[in-house]
Amino acid sequence: MTVDVAQELAVFLRACRERLAPAEAGLVRAGRARRTPGLRREEVAELAGVSVDYVIRLEQGRGLRPSGEVLEALARALQLSDDEHAYVFDLTRQWTAVRRQPQPESSSLAALVQAVSPLPAMLINHRFDIRAWNPELAVLMLNFANVPPERRNAMVLCTLEPAFFDYYTDRERVIREGIADLRAAWAAHADDEGLADLVRTLCDESREFAGLWARRDVKVKSTGRKRLNHPDVGRLTIEYDVLTPLGDTAQRLIVYRAVDAASQQALDRIAAMVSAGDRALAG
């Protein structure tokens, strides 16, 4: 097993407890001064209806395997988001024989990437490997055909590739959100050695990634916005939608579009550059 479930669950639940303010949990009371801003273990135990000793043992990773009912109670007590709730249950699924069956990559999805032109689009898997892209995406971001396959990964490029350091004007937020999404995939595919190797490599090669990974933020992205500093068309702001086939969380189609008139003009220029290149190849 790639993930030590007991230890990861222990660290995650402790992090969630420490970042939840007592006032948010309705626990503002007179009493001794707090040394930390989060909830105390006894408060979590009270809210979840379990013993303090159980919470202590759980946070110490001492071999407990909480039932679904206990996990639900802890999720409510810690006010976990839907994505954090799913993360906890994805982690504990690894204790059972249940595994997510890998889905074959879909050629129809790769064809759809081309069909949505002139909107830039790409297809990624749960490891953020870039599996397909259209010509507009290659001009908007990078011609991935020139990138070695082992480096053709959105998180690797965003985190380690110097060409991307100034490409995102809000790069720290982009990386932080990407890591929160990657952590959800890491729990859902805990037996994926390739994903585990990717995380180890990024932690080893990027202090920034390692620090953000240790925060244990979890949030699956379905839409978002990025501000770009493109070398040819200048600054633009794009929105993106993440489309996931039903029953297959391992493949995601990402489609980009402009958020304002100036950004649309920039995308129109990119489409014209693609068209000019196609005509040059045809001529």
Please explain how this structure is put together.
The structure is a single chain. Helix 4 packs antiparallel against helix 5 and helix 5 runs parallel beside helix 9. With 283 residues, this protein is an alpha+beta fold. It has 12 helices and 5 strands. A 5-stranded antiparallel β-sheet has the order 2-1-5-4-3. The mean pLDDT is 88. 48% of the residues lie in helices and 12% in strands.
Proportion of helical residues? 40-55%
The beta-strand count equals 5
**Helix-strand topology string:** HHHHHHEEHHHHHEEEH
Whole-angstrom Rg: 22 Å
Low-confidence runs = none
How would you sum up the major sheet? 5 strands, antiparallel
Structural class, judged by helices and strands?
alpha+beta
Number of helices: 12
Give the overall silhouette.
elongated
Oligomer: single chain
Give the averaged pLDDT, no decimals.
88
Biggest sheet strand order reads 2-1-5-4-3
End-to-end separation: 55 Å
Q: Classify the beta-strand content into a percent band.
A: 5-15%
